[in-house]
From TrEMBL:
The keyword Cell membrane applies. This is histidine kinase. The keyword Disulfide bond does not apply. One of its GO terms (molecular function) is kinase activity. PROSITE patterns: HAMP, HIS_KIN. It is an enzyme of class 2 (transferase). The chain crosses the membrane at residues 7-29, 175-198. It comes from the Bacteria. Residues 267-487 form the Histidine kinase domain. Residues 200-252 form the HAMP domain. It catalyses: ATP + protein L-histidine = ADP + protein N-phospho-L-histidine. It comes from Paenibacillus oenotherae.
Length: 490
């Protein structure tokens, strides 16, 4: 059963139950008030028939009843009647006296009314003393007593103490059916509006969600869902859209990885194939006796050895990179004093610097020893990779290297800068990608595997730091990386 149908059902049942309860309550009220199981339409008649007069009016009525029983003739006395009428008027009632079919006294408030038509006929047994009547369009309750003015002549008379009843009561009586219709109409309208409201705020968004889920099932993730409200449904729509966005992003990332993987495979194949071809060529040369002299033979064997070493280095680096990538290379962090650590590495490379005619400039603060938390061996690898790049790519004199250490709030920034050829703006964002080499250097004697900076990035990110490069073609390259400063909390 759909929610829409259930809602329709529940609204209908609310309307039906309300109507039944309303009618039942009205009926029970009328029964409770009248003590009679008659229809509700006679509710007011019955009520006023039972209680037509107030206590004072009742007393005056009993008074006059006494006269009617014992001295009926006195009820022809206009003065006496006017006096009673006056007293009745004080309690908002009026007096009417009838002789046969003639009205001999009528309260002034009833002047101009055709009472004879409205008054009930004689009931000499006085079985029905109290009742209601309509005269014209006015509604009265009354107490009546029929008697004989003279039993001999059979001259009949009646006294009426009448009281006009609220037109409101009468109005309610006539308006009751209309009121019920209006009540039901309002109930229906409210139900309908409520149903539409719920449909619009719950069912429609739910339908949209279902359609979106179907889109996702079919692999379409490019649409966007907009929440139309801030309630729970709106939040659900919003969360659903966030989920879609994340799914979309992760699929894009997956595709990107897939693309990378293909690229990687093609790069590896290429980079392995080139030295293999060379090795094969030289080996064939030796086999075919091309290297006839010892000198040539040495050259061939030397070339084979160099290429094999290159390949070994590539495979080693690749293995190392993939270990880092798979988080299989554990980091063993320790406290490292940055300044002396960098100086030691530079000292180890002093001969290299000399060979390349490179001068090294240091920029560091000496106030306090600066400790960082690092894996010594890996950090050394990063620095050697960066220095190696500078040495490899610097191509004009004077060759200058700058090593700088800067202390910030919580981290240290290390800069290794050279005045080499720089990196082209288009290449700069890619140099940290594995196998990325700027075009001219690819396959060049100076060119490596394009893994040095990728490994450096893996290691620095493994330390929770960041690494980036700034470069101006022709001016030089600066590579920066950050490390967390070690704070002794003991
Ligand atoms: N100091 C630099 N000056 C100019 N270009 C640089 C410098 N450092 C890096 N590059 C450019 O960035 C590329 C990527 O550097 P990376 O160290 O990753 O690879 P590589 O040096 O070519 O090979 P590997 O380090 O694996 O031997 C280099 O090929 C080079 O084009
Ligand atoms: Mg390198």
């Amino acid at each position: 059963m759909s929610i829409r149908f259930r809602l329709l059902l529940s609204f209908t049942s609310v309307v039906v139950v309300s109507v039944i309860l309303f009618v039942l309550t009205a009926y029970l009220l009328s029964v409770a008030a009248t003590g009679d199981f008659r229809s509700i339409s006679s509710f007011y008649n019955i009520h006023y028939s039972l209680h037509p007069l107030s206590e004072e009016e009742e007393n005056l009525f009993i008074d006059m009843k006494y006269w009617a029983k014992h001295e009926p003739e006195r009820l022809k006395d206009q003065l006496l009647l006017a006096d009673y009428d006056y007293q009745l008027k004080m309690v908002q009632a009026g007096l009417v006296v009838r002789q046969n079919n003639k009205i001999i006294y009528a309260a002034p408030t009833l002047n101009g009314m055709d009472l004879t038509a409205g008054l009930p006929s004689y009931d000499m047994g006085n079985n029905s003393i109290r009742n209601t009547m309509n005269v014209g369009n006015r509604f009265f309750s009354y107490a009546k007593f029929d008697f004989y003015f003279s039993p001999e002549t059979g001259e009949k008379g009646s006294i009426f103490v009448i009281r006009e009843r609220s037109p409101f009561a009468e109005m309610v009586r006539t308006l009751l059916p209309i009121l019920i219709v209006i009540f039901v109409a309002i109930l229906l309208l409210t139900g309908f509006l409520l149903y539409r409201y719920v449909t619009r705020t719950i069912i429609h968004p739910l339908n949209k969600l279902r359609q979106s889920a179907e889109h996702i099932k079919d692999g379409d993730l490019t649409f966007q869902l907009q929440a139309t409200s801030r309630d729970e449904v709106g939040q659900l729509v919003l969360t659903f859209d966030q989920m879609r966005q994340q799914l979309y992003d992760s699929i894009q990332l997956q595709l990107h990885y897939e693309e990378n993987r293909k690229q990687l495979l093609s790069n590896i194949s290429h980079d392995l194939r080139t030295p293999i071809t060379t090795i094969k060529g030289y080996a064939e040369g030796i086999r075919d006796g091309v290297a006839q002299t010892q000198e040539k033979l040495d050259k061939y064997v030397g070339a084979i050895h160099t290429k094999a070493t290159d390949m070994e280095r590539l495979v080693d680096e690749l293995l190392y990179y993939s270990k880092l990538d798979l988080n299989k290379e554990p980091f063993s962090f320790g406290q490292v004093e940055l300044g002396p650590f960098l100086h030691r590495i530079a000292d180890e490379l002093a001969i290299e610097f000399d060979n390349h005619a490179v001068t090294v400039k240091w920029e560091e603060e000496h106030e306090q020893p600066l400790f960082v938390l690092a894996d010594r061996e890996k950090l050394k690898r990063v620095i050697i990779n960066l220095l190696d790049n500078s040495l490899k790519y610097m191509n004009q004199s004077p060759k200058q290297l700058t090593i700088a250490i800067e202390r910030n709030d919580e981290q240290a920034t290390i800069k290794i800068a050279d005045n080499g050829p720089g990196i082209h703006h288009d290449s700069l964002p890619h140099v940290f990608e594995r196998f990325y080499r700027e075009e001219p250097s690819r396959g060049q004697a100076a060119g490596g595997n394009g893994l040095g900076l990728a490994i450096a990035r893996q290691i620095i990110e493994g330390h929770g730091g960041t690494i980036w490069a700034e470069s101006e073609p022709g001016q030089g390259t600066s590579v920066f990386f950050t490390l967390k400063i070690f704070v002794d909390r003991r």
